[in-house]
Amino acid sequence: MDYSDYEQLTFERREHGVLLITLNRPEKYNAADETMHRELARVFVDVSRDPEARVALVTGAGKAFSAGGDLAMVERLAGNHDRVAHMLSEMSDLVYHVIDCEKPIVSAINGVAIGAGLVVALLADISICAEDALLGDGHVRLGVAAGDHAAILWPLLAGMAKARYYLLTGEMLTGKEAERIGMVTMAVPKERVLDEAMAVAGRLGNGSQLAIRWTKRALNNWLRAAGPIFDQSAAYEMLCFMGPDVLEGVAALREKRPPRFPSATDVP
Predict the structure, then answer these.
(1) Is position 127 within any domain?
(2) 83-119: per-residue pLDDT in tens?
(3) Domain of 248?
C-alpha cells in the first residue's frame, strides 16, 4: 500500500504490524482543512486494504491531536450549498470508514482534540489520552448542531445525561475527566501517551487477527444500529451552515468574545 499521495497525514511502519498515522499540520494545531478532512475520510479504507498493517495508531504532530475544523474552511462552507452537500457526504465517509475499518484503531490523544479530530480520537477502538488534554465538541458554540460523531457515540460512552450536558453546552473536559466518565479508555501523563498507545497497539498486532477483527466488527454493530441517529445529526449540522448563526460563531471565535447569535437575539 502506497501512502505517498497523502499531504497532511504521515505514515510510519512500526514493529508488530503497527501503522503509525500522524495528523501533520502542527503549525495549525492539526486543524482540519479541506485537504486533511478529505484524507481522514479515506485513510481507513486504505488501512483496511493494507496487507502489512495489522493495527492503526493515530496521533497528532506537535502539541495537539487536532484543534477541530479550520475556521477558514468553515467560512467557505457557510451558505455554500454545493460545499455543504459535499461535506455531508465526506463526513459520513469519515465516520463509517472508521467504524467499518477491518483493522483495530488505537488513538494516542496527545493534546487538544475537537471536531473532526475528535471523531477519530473517540471512534478509535482504544483511546489513550493525556490527562491534561482538552476534549470537546464545540459545534453549538460555533452555531451548528453537533453532527460529526457525537450523537451516535457519546451516549454510548458516557450515558445520556453527560452526553446531553457536554453537547448542549459545548463545554470542554480534560482527559482525566473523560476517563472518569467513560469517554476514553485510559488517561495517562502526557509524556506516556504514545508509549502506552504503542504498547497496546503492539499487543493487538501480536494477537489473533481474525478474533480481534471479528470482535471489533460485532461490537461496532452498536454504532451501525445507531446509524440513523448519526445521519440525522450530520444533516442538521450541515443545514445550520446555511443559516446566519455560524457566521457569528466564526466571528466570535476569531475575535475571542462571546457570540451574539441572531437566533438568540430578542425580537421587540
Answers:
(1) yes
(2) 999 999 999 999 999 999 999 999 999 999 998 889 9
(3) 9-255
